[in-house]
Amino acid sequence: MNKTELEFLLDKYNLTPNKIRGQNFLISDEVLDKIISAEQISKSDLVLEIGPGLGALTSRLVKEARQVVAFEVDKNFKKPLDKLSALAGNLEIFWQDILSLSTRQLADILEKHKSKQYKVVANIPYYLTAKFIQKFIQNKYQPETMVLMLQKEVAERIVSKDKKESKLSLSLAFYAQSRIASLVGKENFYPSPKVDSAIIVIEKIKAWSYEADEKLTWQLIQRGFASKRKKLINNLLSDPKLNKEKLTAVFLEIGLDLNIRAEKLSVDNWLILAKKIG
Ligand code: SAM
């Protein structure tokens, strides 16, 4: 879809891009090609698309995949997407916020489409990124791969080896591998956003496979990041089961600086800490 085609559709359906919902539509066939090839879709695949909008990517996905299941929060796109669904025959649309997708609903979708696996593709608003990725990557039913259009800086931070950790970067490191497939300039969107983007591939997604308890490790991480300005020890003290003496002893035993902040801990540091505290 190019800019003229997009403007035609916006006009035809009397739509205005909604800034709050992050509606910056792709207007480059070349970028759509890159997303499709990064996802390596085959005719046996079940693909979940989040935020189909006017269907630029969706109309490509229905040609490449066996079945596409799309989630769109904005019912203003009902006419164009219902039309596409009727034409394609392999597109199911749920009109809901993707963050409200439950594990049960996901299981039902997999069962309905007789698939144990699925792939995720999304050009979603940037403010959804962290919650969205964690929702899928830490799910009981994890996708095989995720191909996402993200803000360039966020994508670069996620794949960088030398970085400050966040709950999102830890989540990706525990359960998957991530890489940037391509950088995408802001001129490829309409309306053009303020920043450039990148296509990120999250692959080799796997279940928790570490000795440390998964739930306990995440409880520690949640507490550890609760207040960014506080030292890790002080954040962890919000757990009534922990006290300063115990934490100091554990930190010294595993060689962690007593003044360290959560963002400085590696994946391995968290796993050791969880094992020692648990
Ligand atoms: N896929 C289209 C494209 O590439 O041109 C549209 C992408 S646009 C950046 C983001 C889309 O996500 C919009 O259609 C918007 O309505 C939808 N969206 C925003 N928040 C959402 C949410 N929480 N759940 C599902 N869709 C959402």
CATH fold node name of the largest domain: Rossmann fold
> Termini, distance in Å?
53 Å
The structure class reads: alpha/beta
* Beta strand %: 15-25%
Secondary structure: helix percent:
40-55%
CATH class of the largest domain: Alpha Beta
Instruction: Give the strand order, joined by hyphens, for the main sheet.
Output: 4-3-2-5-6-9-7
Low-confidence runs: none
**Number of separate structural domains:** 2
Find the CATH superfamily of the largest domain. Answer: Vaccinia Virus protein VP39
CATH architecture of the largest domain: 3-Layer(aba) Sandwich
Shape: elongated
Present as ligands are:
S-adenosylmethionine
Count of helical regions: 12
Order of helices and strands: HEHEHEHEHEHEHHEEEHHHH
What does the model show?
The chain is α/β, with parallel strands linked by helices and 278 residues long. The protein has 2 domains: 3-203, Rossmann fold (3-Layer(aba) Sandwich), CATH 3.40.50.150; 214-277, Orthogonal Bundle (Helicase, Ruva Protein, domain 3). 40% of the residues lie in helices and 16% in strands. It is built from 12 helices and 9 strands. It has helices at 3-12, 29-39, 58-64, 78-88, 103-112, 129-137, 152-159, 167-175, 214-224, 232-236, 244-253, 267-277, and strands spanning 25-26, 46-50, 67-71, 91-94, 119-122, 145-151, 177-184, 189-190, 197-203. The strands form 2 sheets. The protein has a 7-stranded mixed beta sheet with strand order 4-3-2-5-6-9-7. The chain has a two-stranded antiparallel sheet with strand order 1-8. Strand 5 (119-122), helix 6 (129-137) and strand 6 (145-151) form a beta-alpha-beta unit. Helix 6 runs parallel beside helix 8 and helix 9 packs across helix 12. The longest helix is centred in the first third of the chain and has 11 residues, at 29-39. The protein is elongated, with a radius of gyration of 21 Å. The termini are far apart. The mean pLDDT is 95. It binds S-adenosylmethionine.
